[in-house]
Amino acid sequence: MAANNPETLQIHRIPQSTYIDAVRWLPPLSVFERFILLAVSDSNSDASLLEIRALNRSNPSILTPLSSLQLASRTSSLKVCQTPHKPLIAASSFSGSVRFLFVDNVEVGFDGSEHIVPEKSLHVGPISCIDLGGNELECVSVGEDGRVGLVSVGEGELSVRKVFDSAGLVSYSAVKWASPTEFVTGGLGFSVQWWDLRKPGAAVSQFKGNWDQGASSGIVHSIDIHPSRKHTCLAGGSSGTVFTWDIRWPQQPIVLSGAGQDAASARSLSASEVWEVQYDTFTRSSNHRISSTRVLPVMMCSEDGILAVTEEGEEPIELLVEPCAINCFDIDRQNPSDVICSMEWESVAILSRA
Amino acid sequence: MPGVASNSDDLALIPHSPTNSHTIALHHTVKPPISRLSIAWARGNSLRVAVIRKPQAGESDDEPGGQVVEVKLGVDEADIYEAQWRRIAYGSVTPFAVLQSRKNLNTNAYNADLPAYVIEYSREINSLLGNQKVLPDPVIEDPKTVLQRVDEPTFSKAAWELMEIFFADKQSDGWIPERLVDWLSDYDNLIHGEQPTIYSRLVDFQTELVNLQAVEEDPKYWDVLSAALAVGWLDIVVKLLRLHSSYQHNQIGSRETENGLVETVVVLVSKMPRLRPNLSAGKLGECFDNKPDFVKAWEKWRGQITKLDCSAFWLQCGHQDTREGLKKLLQIMLGNASVLSATTFHWVELFIGHFLYIRPFTVGMESMYNLAQKCMQFKPGSSPHKLMELLNGILGENTEVVLAECSRSFGSWMITHAIELLTAGSTQADILLHEERNNLGGICIEELHRLVYAQVLSSHALTWQIAPIYLASCKKQGMGLLEILLYKQPVGHNQVLLKNIEICRMYELDNVGANAMKIAGVHHWKHGKKGSGVFWLQQAQDEFRLNRIAQQLFDFVGKSVSDESFKQWEGLIELLGSQSKAAGGLDFLHKYRDFKRSLQQVTDIACIDAARKASEALILLMKNPSTPQRFWLSLLYDSVKLLNWKERTLLNVPQTNLLLNKLQELSMARLRPDFIEADLPPQALSSVRLALATNLGRAILEE
């Protein structure tokens, strides 16, 4: 596979002077520059900021600050979505608020209009994850308080409603839209829930693999769903675990890494928390017979400093091995060869694959 | 030192004087009257001040009763400096850890590769302290720019390189003098205090240079030339000499001899033999990596200088300043001690001049030290300077002085990392640093400094997670302090907890990890996050606490569980699992859910399979010792319709007897004072009794 060759992989490490909570690519707004959204927290001033930075195409080791916005609390989850007019940013906080912002297309920066779901109106305590999508630009949010919220981002006002409230009997840690009316959540004990807004009241389907044997259980930290395979959800979590769950075969997860039950088929890339997983649209599947049961290549980053691409039954490709945790990464939708990731030791890395 | 308190100022460790005091404004939003202030240390260099007000009568409860404010002390440190410091701290983790693991590989046998590892380590650390990269040259080179523009060098880097030269770099032991020449050319700008240095003179002269028509007319020109030559900055000397106006086209005819002399000196300067393997680009001289070749070249070069010195051309040179200036340069190259002393400013500059022109073969610390002492006598009055104190300690082979200087001037990061160089440098230092000392509580000096550095790291929210690397390298106290550090982390925050557990996993502190999970479990449980509480207690396999919270959960279930709200419980029940032993009686909920579910499916007579399943679940529940007694009656009451099943009996004689026994047991238990009455209609007991009796009768008949 192409990315295995170090000559075709360019890495630019850019040290920052603040801790990076989250990092995302912004959709392309200019021919000459690329734009990056960073959620940072400054330990000196205890300030949390949202920043738009420009990345020079010819010299990707310089990030020029363009626009920045002070936040009241640290960012727990950050999502970007292209709307017909301008990109929409949603940022959730550890204090339980969600902030919606639009990016100005012309003078790249925050356009001044913002909507806030205040603390305690939707969630009490930290929001663990949000996702943008749904029927007409909706933001689904999950929290440690066991609530599932839905915010419709219209032109003017936000409309907020609670989809489910477990009253703390469970906590959710990840969420992802599957279709305009369906979404998937993940939580403690590697549990994954499938929800359908047309069938309110409870999750439609529950998955909790039989992890009790051998390795101890863990938490799902991140979920992704490929737009062409909405029946399968990809999840990453504790103990280096990356697995997929197909709702058509609800009892059997396909383990891509970690939680070593079937050590032969699933090589463990990492032994600690997998913080984020995304389908890697750049790495082409080595198996040319594309079958719908085969899992597409997956990128993951972990607490023990690994950024890697893994595929069912293949040798994983390590893109980056760092001495500190890689907390977050994002694959550029328009340019899937480019990846940005943020490191625990106050730096970001930009990887370009060829 | 804690516990040392005194009433008199004489005994105070840090004498307090009112002139030293510093006022920091405290910003809070608490309305007066303020009744109490409570002050405590927060992380790092900040204080946590709680401002508490006295509640006034007749006020609404909305008014906050107080506020906690964090006050940063020492805010005058620049932000970027802090970030820069953290970058160095992060960057030094890997080289340090790699070196430790290499040293630990074979502790007994002599590690032949160790010097190579140490120099690799030293280079990596050195590169963190800033690269002396020359800024890109301007497109049109300015001939009058004599000094190259470099990034501002740092004291730490200068100190590190000094230690690298003497302790780590064994390969270049033979050319320490030349390395010192390089060192001074990089850092001469750092050592000036009240007294000028050659570098500062050069900088001054460069600003004047633009306005000078004929440089050789200015006595300063010759001064800086000889000064630069004295410390071996040959490239600068040549560049300056070429500015001599005899090179200009309109003058070359009339000043041919003069120009010839200048150019001959230029050639001699650039051909100076150097006892070193190579030179970096742009530097001048001819390198010799062995002594005999060097001696030969040196003699020849000296011969050429002497020959030029006695040449008849000087008489033909009309320009007096040029003649005298060039002669002075020749004297320096011939090693005239008094000229050298007159042209240099700082003792270290004179020291370097001696190496270059008088004693190029100086080896051994003792001779270097004596030379340094001599130079200091010639150039007294240099104000104390941290780099010079350090150099003094190194030359005097006094490890204690080096340690003290490192610690005093450069802080705990420097000393912790420099000790690796010191121990590699000499056996004596190695013994001194590794000797266990009673006055330090049985630890050695090396460990002491690592512990101090780890403490500094622990005090910052972003660097505490690299402290374990240093603590783990401390044999005696390290693990104990690591445990304390881990226990101090707030576990309510999932990210911190997971980091904590990860560190425990890496250092095999399973017990500490389990305790953190238990604390987190109880924390979440208390804050109403029941699922998280159960999850972490399960992870910690804490049966005791699981049993305790199980009782509370049952109370909650007993009150709230209706068929509707079971949907809420679904997630938690899934989490509890069906057979996990660590659930501490909580597996009851799982079976209860199964029973309720099958009971719900029993809607009419046709659902015989569901009814059979429900009755099996009922027997399982009643047989299970973990089923709490207070649920027995509600379970039986729920299953009255199973007992009264029209078609046939669902429970046989022994099963019915079991249920009857349980009912009997329950009646006995009701007499006890701590019995909790189930929330059921008053006729529940009698209807269950009746149904059971009927069922028993039918079952006997059927058999």
TrEMBL record, chain A:
Coiled coil: none
Compartments (UniProt record): Nucleus
Keywords in alphabetical order: Nucleus, Repeat, WD repeat
UniProt main location, coarse: nucleus
This protein's GO CC annotations: nuclear pore outer ring
Protein's name according to its UniProt entry: Histone-binding protein RBBP4 N-terminal domain-containing protein
Source organism of the structure: Daucus carota subsp. sativus
Automatic annotation (TrEMBL), chain B:
One Gene Ontology CC term in the entry: nuclear membrane
Keyword field contains Transport: yes
Keywords: Membrane, mRNA transport, Nuclear pore complex, Nucleus, Protein transport, Translocation, Transport
Chief subcellular location: nucleus
Name by which UniProt lists this protein: Nuclear pore complex protein Nup85
Molecular function GO terms recorded: structural constituent of nuclear pore
Family: Belongs to the nucleoporin Nup85 family.
Protein's cellular compartments: Nucleus, Nuclear pore complex
Protein source organism: Daucus carota subsp. sativus (Carrot)
Pfam families assigned: Nucleopor_Nup85
Assembly, per entry: Component of the nuclear pore complex (NPC).
InterPro entries per record: Nucleoporin_Nup85
Role description: Functions as a component of the nuclear pore complex (NPC).
GO biological process: mRNA export from nucleus; positive regulation of DNA-templated transcription; protein import into nucleus; response to abscisic acid
Signal peptide range in chain numbering: none
Keyword Protein transport: yes
